[in-house]
Amino acid sequence: MAKGLLGRKVGMTQVYREDGVVAPVTVIQLGPCHVLQVRTVDRDGYEAVQLGFGDKPRRLARRSERGHVAQLGSKRSRARSAAGVAAPKKASCEPQRFIREIRGSADGVSVGDTLNVGLFEGVKAVDVVATSKGRGYAGVMKRHNFAGQRASHGVKKVHRHSGGTGCSADPARTFKGLPMSGQYGNAKTTMRNIKVEAVDVENGLLLIRGGVPGPNGGYVVVKETNKV
Fold this sequence. Notes:
Helices cover 11% and strands 36% of the residues. The protein is mainly beta. It has 3 domains: 1-31 and 117-134 and 185-228, Elongation Factor Tu (Ef-tu), domain 3, CATH 2.40.30.10; 32-115, Double Stranded RNA Binding Domain, CATH 3.30.160; 135-184, no CATH class. The strands form 3 sheets. A 6-stranded antiparallel barrel has the order 1-2-11-10-7-12. A 4-stranded antiparallel beta sheet has the order 5-4-3-6. Strands 8-9 form a two-stranded antiparallel ribbon. The longest helix has 8 residues, at 75-82.
């Protein structure tokens, strides 16, 4: 199958390599992940594995979330079974907090399987997808690294402004995508081709070089990179 797991960012630390060099690493708790569904080309038009991470108490889960992972009795399900319609297989696990699909071949896995960080043994580099830290509404100096206006005589209370954004008579408008102030962060971000420093199967941890998006405790998706 395509190698990918869901997890949670623990934090950053540093480790010593065999040659004595100190490497900054991010510790990610990967798995265990339950296989909730398997997408096929014949039924869904594409191949993927749907994974779930983090058990959710049943008292906090909606009925749809509980029915996604286990069989729930209902009038409709009883009528379908009486008509000879086989119910799809469920993972028979607790409701999951974080659910994502990993695109790619689903060979070797089936609904109900549990995957752990041992899947990444031998993998040299990964892609990490996470939600970056939200910084609210920010100006152009913080959001786009603008230099700001001069602090000299005659510049009046516009030191952190972006400057002129107008165009001439042609095109007589402002182009879309111009760097301006606005929402900064809190966006889906992908870090590609990050080197794997170590895989701790016993504790379910993956150590990768450098930093990854998001705060400590944030959910992440880790996939084997396809970048050469």
